[in-house]
Amino acid sequence: AFKAAVLIQQWYRRYVARLEMRRRCTWRIFQSIEYACEQDQIKLHNFFSYLMDQFTPSSSKERDFISRMFVSGESYKEAELEKYCDYESIEVPDSYTGPRLSFPLLPDHATALLEAFKQKQQLHARYVLNLLHETRKHLKQLPNISHVSTCYSEEVTVCGDLHGQLDDLFLIFYKNGLPSPSKSYVFNGDFVDRGKQSLEILIILFTFLLIYPKEVHLNRGNHEDHMVNLRYGFTKEVMQKYKVHGKKILRMFQNVFCWLPLATLIDQKVLVIHGGISDTTDLDMLEKIQRDKFISVLRMKKRNELSAKPEMQAINGESKSGTDAAGNEAAPRLSLQPQSAQAPSTANRLEFSRWLRQTVQEQMDTCRRLVDISESESEELTCSSMVSLKDVDEPCWTRQEEWKQILDILWSDPMPQEGCRENKVRGGGCYFGPDVTEKFLEKYNLQFLIRSHECKQEGYEFCHNRKVLTIFSASNYYEIGSNRGAYVKLGPDLIPHFVQYQANKTAHLLTMTQRQGIPVVLISRVEESAFRALREKLFAHTSALISAFKAYDGDNTGRITLSNWATAVESVLRLGLPWRMLRPQLVRSTEDGMLEYKSWLDDLAMEQRSQEHIQSSLLEVIYRNRSNLETIFRIIDRDHSGLISFEEFQQTWKLFSSHMNIELTDDGINDLVRSIDFNKDGNIDFNEFLEAFRLVKQCQ
């Protein structure tokens, strides 16, 4: 009996260990694919930024289009924005049966919204715009770093990413209670994208923010960014739900997002930020940054900022020679040094300050005339162009320094190793180690950090000697049963207390089954979804995989070893996955340890082939590029109508042709756009855009 018990125990431990290994592999697949998509988004944005830097508009019409296309929302002044989003001119019909809002808001309004959204009702566009207008006015009064005290309420509840999953928010309120004078909340960014009800989440949170401004606090996340929204779903969601006024609503959301505070400080001891920190994170700088300048954190520089660098060099007395720090010849640029007057001595600070203000203003006026920038576009001056007597002895940060501060706190992740390095996995922010955390906490006399930004299987996770806490509130993020959501409650003692949950009923049943001793049901379901996504990724890189396999097949036998298969796959996909461990789920076992890679790729193609029987090579390209194509389409479609006008296509093509050095006349561009307009309605929809891409690829 004793030997039997030991045998059963050994078998059970091996069984649990195998399940845990499968769980970890599944998790790595999901995260690797997610971060690879974020890399693609940033690469795509950098590509368009490069085009913008290289493209010189030949007319004011082209310049206006480019401004609308890439500087969305920033050219609107206060009065212009209110006039554009005039909610009072929108009538609510008598047939409307949804919730109604009147300001100032009351708790009953929030309750009515919750009940309406549970019944799948939609708030009228007039009330949405009115709510956004009031929210924007309130956010503009808030500091960059909000301060919360547990003295006024017994505890503070901190929630992580929600990502459009309204059921999770409902469950949090059901378990923890609605916001109230005795129930404070901090929502730590990433309210939108991926899920299908981002709009409803924002409406609820903004409503509670206006009702309880001292008890509800919202931090900005990396997804509160209109460039990210173009790819991950929020832009599409708004336009589908509000076809008539969607453009105005999106414009207001873009402006509201840039006014969200950047961090929250609880009892001066716990800092809540969305992503993380770096070795250069400076809370003093973060407190003073003009945060609304950064409509999109992905977009750092604009044309009218090209003059900022020479200005800073002139102020700091730096060299303006024709070489850069590396000794390379610098690109020609406008000189901003005074031509007629000699700079007064800095000993007379008042005289120097007046001279500097006058000189900078004159040179900025000259630059605006040269590039035909209107006065309304010139408001976003760097602090170097607003020097006063007080500013002469104070630090003056460049736009890039400010941008990096915000980028780091929104995009960074912790790592177990020491130091701080670029976050190449996501493509933005940095990785920071326990030593960086320790120095930061010591510098600002903090106990620990709370951040979100990363999905965790249990909904939360400590790292860096329990000095960094990750909280993630979107349950079933990758797949039903993939992870729990969680929120954390802090009392006056600042000891964290966690509450975990899974909002989906199916996931709840699976969890109950798991408790009864059959975890394989849950793991198998999530694992199947992960490998399905991984097979799609492999299929999307068929051509590159064939080239990589042939490098190991010198005799052209069509066969390679399984070890070489794993090495080749990683060299192409670069996901950092344990391919040898995943191989049994992806490759059929062979007796001689060799793989017929062409047959294996054909099997992948059979799995992905659509009902239209598109040629495998075409389907591969569309799979690999569909997200990028859809993002490009939405960038070109600046009015978010779901259609690209001929003018939008023509001007965008000029960007591409300037980058590729292709000379094409206006008549040639007109012929091209008419050939893509298959139904001849004068516009290009996404299906026509995708079909044109498919046909061009098919002809190659």
From TrEMBL:
Pfam families: EF-hand_7 (PF13499), Metallophos (PF00149), PPP5 (PF08321). The keyword Manganese applies. It catalyses: O-phospho-L-threonyl-[protein] + H2O = L-threonyl-[protein] + phosphate; O-phospho-L-seryl-[protein] + H2O = L-seryl-[protein] + phosphate. Its cofactor is Mn(2+). Keywords: Calcium, Hydrolase, Manganese, Metal-binding, Protein phosphatase, Repeat, Sensory transduction, Vision. Residues 308-345 are annotated as: Disordered. Residues 336-345 have a biased composition (Polar residues). InterPro entries: Calcineurin-like_PHP (IPR004843), EF-hand-dom_pair (IPR011992), EF_Hand_1_Ca_BS (IPR018247), EF_hand_dom (IPR002048), Metallo-depent_PP-like (IPR029052), PPP_dom (IPR013235), PPP_phosphatase (IPR051134), Ser/Thr-Pase_EF-hand_contain (IPR012008). Its EC number is 3.1.3.16. It is an enzyme of class 3 (hydrolase). SUPFAM superfamilies: EF-hand (SSF47473), Metallo-dependent phosphatases (SSF56300). Residues 540-575, 624-659, 664-699 form the EF-hand domain. It comes from the Eukaryota. One of its GO terms (biological process) is visual perception. PANTHER family: SERINE/THREONINE-PROTEIN PHOSPHATASE 5-RELATED, SERINE_THREONINE-PROTEIN PHOSPHATASE WITH EF-HANDS 2. Belongs to the PPP phosphatase family. This is Serine/threonine-protein phosphatase. The lineage of its organism: Eukaryota, Metazoa, Chordata, Craniata, Vertebrata.
